[in-house]
Amino acid sequence: MAELLKFELVSPEKLLMSADVQSVVIPGAEGDFGVFVNHAPVLSTMRPGIVDITTADGKNERIFVRGGFAEVNPTGLTVLAEQAVNMDEMDAAALAQHIKNAQEDVNDATSDAKKQKAQEMLDQLKQLEASL
């Protein structure tokens, strides 16, 4: 059997996943990147998007994250997500609430930089909605 990557996904609320997996695709701030066993060390911020996980048995799991950090080190991959929701548990009503909150953040932004960041979040949530 092929070597597996030790993967942990943590949000402020709880440890969402701790497993040995084949690979993980991270929505990095500079673009998506795949992580496999023996990957070079990397520390990256994450943009809102989908973390795609290929489990040890070859199944795919998709988890939406609202930003955070990903750290690849010799022992594996740790994702510290600002917020994370398993796509199997994501429903249209919950996503609509996230979009509403993001629109309020755009409307309430007090500077151009904050408004731009809030607009990027809103755009990414709308893309996610389109992929459901």
Helix and strand arrangement:
Elements: E1 5-10, E2 15-28, E3 31-36, E4 42-55, E5 60-73, E6 76-81, E7 84-86, H1 92-108, H2 112-131
Parallel strand pairs: 1-6
Antiparallel strand pairs: 1-2, 2-3, 2-4, 4-5, 5-6, 5-7
Helix pairs in contact: 1-2
Task: Offer a quick outline of the entry.
By secondary structure, the chain is α+β, with helices and mostly antiparallel strands. It is built from 2 helices and 7 strands, in the order βββββββαα. It has 2 domains: 82 residues, ATP Synthase, domain 1 (Sandwich); 40 residues, no CATH class.
Describe, in plain words, how this protein is organized in 3D.
The chain has 2 helices and 7 strands, in the order βββββββαα. Strand 4 and strand 5 form a beta hairpin. The chain has helices spanning 92-108, 112-131; strands at 5-10, 15-28, 31-36, 42-55, 60-73, 76-81, 84-86. It has a 5-stranded mixed beta barrel. The longest helix is centred in the last third of the chain and has 20 residues, at 112-131. Helix content is 28%, strand content 48%. The mean pLDDT is 90. The relative contact order is 0.17. It has 132 residues and is of the alpha+beta class. The chain folds into 2 domains: 5-86, ATP Synthase, domain 1 (Sandwich), CATH 2.60.15; 92-131, no CATH class.
